[in-house]
Write a structure and sequence with these properties.
Blueprint lengths: L10 E2 L30 E6 L6 E9 L2 E4 L1 H4 L7 E5 L13 E10 L12 E5 L14 E2 L16 E2 L13 E5 L5 E9 L11 E4 L4 H11 L3
Antiparallel strand pairs: 1-8, 2-3, 2-5, 3-4, 4-7, 5-6, 6-7, 9-10, 10-11, 11-12
């Protein structure tokens, strides 16, 4: 674990419980070290529903009924063919006590999503509420971006939470930064990359702050409290 870090950034909370908090906060993950159970309680595994289903993308709980993910993970699927696993820590360990298996009622991809990873953002609406626990909690979202010459994220250390490389199962997962109150904020959604941490090969992330209006509009339109 590395040193902790912080950023003065506004936070948008769309859930009915405090966001961005976990039971175990031990600083930034370095070099792919394992996270502690409950360290990233908003992280979910997206799978194809059915026996023997395997993890193929990540996502973040932002509300008891909504998961934020990448459009390229879900835009060609039907809700009945997807399942979300919350509270999971180890993909190789089945039936963990902390797990919640949640079905999907609606897939909301950005209407202007392009295969070139433009507007690569989507919401999964869940059929039932996620139950908040020490292992299942929502992440915070950043304030709506205001364009200007100074980018508040420039030069700031961030964390990608997931189960592997950013192009091999971690697509849709969160790019996180800690605010001054110690809350973790999802400033990006993993979109694309080549391997993990390769020199001169950048990862691609969808900037969440540009889509706050879209996210709140879709959640409001769903009628879910």
């Amino acid at each position: 674990m590395g040193n902790d870090y912080s950023l003065s950034v506004g936070v948008v909370a769309v859930a009915d419980v405090s966001c961005g908090r976990s039971q175990t906060r031990a600083g930034r993950i370095k070099n792919g070290e394992n996270a502690y159970p409950g360290e990233f309680p908003w992280l979910v595994s997206i799978r194809v529903a059915g026996p023997g289903s395997a993890h193929y993308c990540g996502g973040s709980l932002i509300h008891k009924r909504f998961v934020l993910t990448a459009a390229h993970c879900v835009h060609r699927n039907l809700p009945k063919y997807l399942v979300v696993i919350a509270g999971e820590h180890d993909l190789s360990s089945k039936g963990q006590e902390s797990e919640q298996v949640l079905s999907v009622s609606n897939i909301i991809s950005h209407s202007n999503y392009s295969k070139r990873y433009i507007n690569d953002i989507a919401l999964l609406q869940l059929t039932e509420d996620a139950t908040w626990s020490r292992f299942v909690r929502p992440v915070c979202l950043p304030d709506k971006q205001v364009d200007g010459p100074n980018d508040p994220l420039d030069g700031k250390p961030v964390t990608v939470a997931g189960w592997g490389n950013t192009d091999e199962g971690d697509s849709g997962g969160p790019l996180l930064i800690s605010d001054t109150q110690g809350r973790l904020v999802s400033v990006g959604v993993v979109s694309n990359g080549i391997g993990c941490g390769r020199p001169r090969v950048p990862g691609l992330y969808t900037r969440v702050s540009r889509y706050i209006d879209w996210i709140t509009e879709k959640i409001t339109a769903s009628g879910v409290a």
